[in-house]
Specification:
The protein contains eight helices and 20 strands. The protein is an alpha+beta fold. The two termini are 37 Å apart. Bound molecules: adenosine-5'-triphosphate and magnesium ion (MG).
């Protein structure tokens, strides 16, 4: 178990600043997710923590100890990188056993731990195959098993599940999370997939262009994104431009619609409303933020329906409604109805 600290860490490649002044602390047993678009600096950050890339500035600490100058093998870190190279001449079993053999673990213990790791990633049956006899997703799972088997202080995972189909990905993700929590392995995981980030991360770090945009729990980031980039990157959202009035209790959109807002900062220029926060009503109702609207598009998604509505003030909004077995609802294009937004769900966001 260990904490990991980045203290003003930067990485330059020539003139290019790939990682710009990262400071963060991963607490013991926490699963921290790095999330951001391609090229934003996620892999570079992991490589500096693992010791495969030198930081240009700043310090990396593991368990309060400065490891910035330490080689990778002195850091007791399990890694699964994007190019999860396996040893081609070793069987799946021996690939996973490799780290244990180096640690002079007993044969009985090796057999037990390798089996447990392989069953975790659902590969018990393939223990005697060579990597070239496996699919890409299977190789990736061997890499996950190999990183977990040594029970490292810190686990670094770079898109570890990217080659798996949706069903397997969901299962392996849950199993990994269970084991990570059981063994309390401090974990930093990179993913592009926001569902994966939200469902696995204790906290998320949203990165863009080598800069940390926001760090917080999935709930923090979803409910109160600090800027439009974070808001758009985490979940779906409606954004309507305008300006706050009356000390932030009202947000007036460009088309002149006044939306009651529980507290829009004076610098807010966008109001964000999540699709599930919009209520649909058949008739007008008293109270704040009830607006007439017309259904334009209805998309059935299985567990929910997604509607695109046009307000009479001309804005369009996306609304999602979970399917209800008890009360199935059917919406049709052209239908007139009313929307209602709780002022607490209208979140003012300042420009970046
Ligand atoms: N060795 C290198 N030399 C020069 N530039 C590099 C080097 N490694 C990475 N970069 C650049 O640094 C930036 C960050 O790269 P990094 O691999 O950390 O991105 P990433 O967030 O992991 O992206 P992806 O999601 O595509 O894996 C990119 O613009 C990349 O081109
Ligand atoms: Mg990467």
């Amino acid at each position: 178990m260990a904490t990991v600290t980045l203290d003003h860490v930067s990485k330059r490649f020539g003139e290019f600043l790939a990682v710009d002044d990262f400071s963060l602390e991963v607490t013991e047993g926490e699963l921290l997710v790095l999330l951001g678009p391609s090229g934003c600096g996620k892999t570079t950050t992991l490589r500096m923590i693992a010791g495969f890339t030198d930081a240009s500035a700043g310090a990396v600490r593991i368990r309060e100890r400065d490891v910035t100058q330490d080689p990778p093998y002195r850091r007791n870190i399990g890694v699964v990188f994007q190019n999860y190279a396996l040893f081609p001449h070793l069987t799946v079993f021996e690939n996973v056993a490799f780290g244990l053999r180096r640690r002079r673990t007993s044969e009985a213990e090796i057999a037990k731990r390798v089996e447990r790791s392989l069953s975790l990633v659902k590969l018990d049956e393939l223990a005697q195959r060579l990597p070239r006899q496996l699919s890409g997703g299977q190789q990736q799972r061997v890499a996950v098993a190999r990183a977990l088997v040594i029970e490292p202080d810190v686990l670094l995972l770079d898109e570890p599940l990217s080659n798996l189909d949706a069903k397997l990905r969901h299962d392996v993700r849950q199993e990994m999370r269970r084991l990570q929590q059981l063994l309390k392995i401090t974990t930093i995981m990179v993913t592009h997939d926001q569902d994966e980030a939200m469902s696995m991360g204790d906290r998320l770090v949203v990165i863009d262009h080598g800069r940390i945009q926001q760090i917080g729990t999935p709930q923090d980031l979803y409910r109160t994104p600090r800027n439009p980039f974070v808001a758009a990157f985490i979940g779906q959202a409606n954004f309507i431009e305008g300006r706050p009035e009356r000390d932030g209790s009202l947000f007036v959109t460009r088309s002149g619609l006044s939306i009651a807002c529980a507290g829009c900062a004076p610098e807010a220029r966008t109001v964000m409303i999540r699709p599930e926060a919009i209520e649909l009503l058949d008739a007008p109702a008293p109270g704040a933020n009830v607006f007439p609207a017309t259904v334009e598009v209805v998309t059935y998604l299985g567990s929910a329906s997604e509607l695109i509505l046009r307000l009479t003030s001309s804005e369009t909004v996306i609304v999602t409604k979970p399917a209800s077995a008890a009360e199935p609802r059917h919406w049709a294009p052209g239908q007139n109805l009313y929307i209602r937004v709780d002022p607490a769900s209208a979140v003012g966001i300042a420009p970046m």
